[in-house]
Fold this sequence. Notes:
Thiol Ester Dehydrase, Chain A, three-stranded antiparallel β-sheet, 8 strands, 22% helix
Amino acid sequence: MGAVFTVTRNLRFADCDPAGIAFYPRLLEHVNNVVEDWFAGPLDCSFHELHFVRERGVPTVEIQVKFLRPGALGDAIDWRLTVKTLSRASMTLSIIGAHENGKDMLRAEPTLVHSNFTLDPPRAESFPDDLREKIAAFRAAPSASP
Amino acid sequence: MGAVFTVTRNLRFADCDPAGIAFYPRLLEHVNNVVEDWFAGPLDCSFHELHFVRERGVPTVEIQVKFLRPGALGDAIDWRLTVKTLSRASMTLSIIGAHENGKDMLRAEPTLVHSNFTLDPPRAESFPDDLREKIAAFRAAPSASP
Amino acid sequence: MGAVFTVTRNLRFADCDPAGIAFYPRLLEHVNNVVEDWFAGPLDCSFHELHFVRERGVPTVEIQVKFLRPGALGDAIDWRLTVKTLSRASMTLSIIGAHENGKDMLRAEPTLVHSNFTLDPPRAESFPDDLREKIAAFRAAPSASP
Amino acid sequence: MGAVFTVTRNLRFADCDPAGIAFYPRLLEHVNNVVEDWFAGPLDCSFHELHFVRERGVPTVEIQVKFLRPGALGDAIDWRLTVKTLSRASMTLSIIGAHENGKDMLRAEPTLVHSNFTLDPPRAESFPDDLREKIAAFRAAPSASP
């Protein structure tokens, strides 16, 4: 069984729209923030270090999201991140945001590509060993064959 | 053949991140803006009218996005919207943003549900006839069976 | 001496611009978040309660901001909020965001007006007693005459 | 009499908050967009050129804003930009956003400093002659003494 990264964050006034619920592009900012917190925390490589020291990045090249229930101003959302697939230079994450009653607000599956930003244009590049090892610990269920 | 809604918009400073390219949640704001322009234009029902006069809304319940090429500060993006599927109370759109050289920056397929916001919680409700007829004109290719 | 409300928050990827520093409209979102946290915390009236239960709001009618030093991706910012002036239906706050080394990143003075949103258009309305009393505790230095 | 830069933009769903009106940090994004359009238009130096070709920037170091009337979803706002003061490396702008009925929504006075981003930290630097000349044309009224 893999590790699960969790963090809780409130939906804010700045996240909500005239319908009184969280605006979906802002919910995807929350998704991105969860990834950022995971890097700064257990992966031990803050986005500051990743972008400005290592000159790498992890742009999202694909995402699928189901918005199952609305999120309202002030709601505390429990986020859970696991790694669905990990390959040479990319990974697909499972990021679920749930209400306090345990019901899912959204389920997102972003695919991120580790990229070398010293090249123009940036190019995919294998995860370095330190990151790969820490990322692998969050695989939901190790696949039989890579 | 269905109609295609098109609009061109530049990527702005506010859209771009420290990697110098458009931040993906902000690109999804652009996607939402295209829907908003389509409603205010050919559908003849601005979001102001939809939300505050009709007290309805079209929350996005699902979205799939492929980010094929990065967008940079100042890039003019040509957006094309068509309707992929239209059912009683929901529709799946195809929204493609392309660079001036014709190469796609992103392809998004959001599913929107027409919802009655006078109910608590809001509930899906059939599109009214005036909207349905105008939406149907943008179907990429009428399906053989609904 | 009045109370000081403090909270620490990191600058995020979503806050930063192509120059690699926090984008000033996003810094003002942080300023607004500090106010939101102050209401939900010591004022014991979350924005959810304020807007959806009490049907009131505190729109910002004026703001002056000095951006003294840039904020960079990942910087932990220490925020301090005090009340500069408090009158019948409005208050001017002092909100200072400082770097970990103690040097100020920005100093903002927003003026907020307590407004009744059940009226159209919304109208200024005296702070209710419970809020006024809690707000008054944060006055930097009680003025001799109101 | 100086030139006036004008542009009209709608307030969008993404700009509006649960109170149904434009969120003030988003209005300041509009203010920044007006500056961006002025640079790309009459100043003939897009933010892309300024940041990535010239490696300069114009960070806002101070701003004063009066929010005189709320802006609502869909409102068309007429923006007017003039230059209030222009000195060696900085300028204070007057940016007014008005409703279609001519009544002002907001008045902002941001001060921008032309900065050299090839230095770490970036440092103020005189406006180059081409920019200075074009900026000067927008001075509201030349002051008697600098």
